[in-house]
Amino acid sequence: MNMYSVNKELIKDAGYIDGQWCQASSGNTISVYNPATGEQLGQVPDMGVDEAQAAIDAAHTALASWREVTPKERARLLRRWFELILEHQEDLARLMTLEQGKPLFETRGEVLYGASYIEWYAEEGKRAYGKLFAAPTHDKRALSIQQPIGVVAAITPWNFPNAMITRKVAPALAAGCTVVLKPSEETPYSALALMVLAEQAGIPAGVINMITSSQAASIGKVLTDDSRVRKLSFTGSTRVGKLLYSQSAETVKKLSLELGGNAPFIVFDDADLDAAVAGAVISKFRNAGQTCVCANRILVQDGIYDAFVARFKEAVEQLVVGNGLDEATTLGPVINQAAIDKIAALVDTAQSQGAQLITGGVRHAAGNLFFAPTILANVTQQMDIAQQEIFGPVAPVIRFSDDADAIAIANDTPYGLAAYFYTEKHSRIWKVAEALEFGMVGINEGILSNEIAPFGGVKESGQGREGSSQGLEDYMETKYLCMGGIR
């Protein structure tokens, strides 16, 4: 295994159940590859139904004692986990670049972003307040308390293999819940390294259990069918999210679903053009376009359409495509063969439907999974590329006439995760922000995620929020207490 200069302590080729590092009972493994080079990095266990059941058993057993740990003590353990992640930032970043492909400047940023959720919930967990209500009559008192929901199942994706875990696990632990976690089989090493540090931080056995598996459907079924799992948190495709949603109905689980997006990035003709171009580049091409909140459709007003496209082309052609371990690289590979084939097909179809290729449009010579950063102009909302989540370094640019036109095009999608717009008019800012049917809106800003803010979508982009105080509430139940006989 060539893991270059990553600290060997952090590299685990085992799952983690009830405080023990373990293999799959079947003996089966999953091979993990570096998307930039195609080189095999190693193998992790391909765990199945038995291990999933054992993980739920362990989480259920650990719940009784973990929920009794004081919020202050849980906060201390989370704080220690946060500190250990910061100490190992460079190793965690290199490990992520090796298995996921994104450039080092992005993986370093993700490690800090992921850690910020642990720090936030270490603090926020001490602030889970109840309420005292005005009594309905003199002989009664009415109050409510907040309690942990119970065992939580978390299923996380490969595009942010660190932060999607911390964003779910930190509030669950802070609330007093225990967790069964299934990370993506594409990027298990980043997840397992976090687990190594959680163990070092002193988080007790059974509180976090991690199953590595390629058997997503059967593991998902075990997690949704078991009535002891009271909450499911999933980040991934809308198709899979809907399936998990329906499977959770039988046991009426609480759900947090962060699903697909089709983010509009709107540039009005009064926008600061340089800021809009810079925002579009970072929003669209971060992580090679493989983020659920990235600009999926760029909507530009008639008056500045040509000027925007010309400047955007100039900026996009400055991107440096290559292996993420090279410090000069600003755009890495996509995750796998299926991903690059889908991207290439979408670009070809768009051109056959009348889109004009401005730059890129081809697979890149850097390697099998690299696609040249691409701009397509004269795209219409009816084209396939405007209706689907691209999840690649391709920017379709759509023309619009006025505010009402922009809002109609932006909202013409079943998705409602993120939207962005650039304008200098304060009245337009309010009107457009309120009219967009999305859970998050970036205004003169291309990046909007941080730990203090509620992250999540509306419509078919999901439900629930991660981050902010709301992210803690999503792992707790409210219990009302009615006290009578007060004389």
UniProtKB/TrEMBL annotation:
Record: active site: E258
UniProt key word Oxidoreductase: yes
Keywords: Oxidoreductase
Keyword Nucleus included in the entry's annotation: no
Pfam families in the cross-refs: Aldedh (PF00171)
Domain Aldehyde dehydrogenase: 21-480
Family as reported in the entry's similarity comment: Belongs to the aldehyde dehydrogenase family.
Protein name: NAD-dependent succinate-semialdehyde dehydrogenase
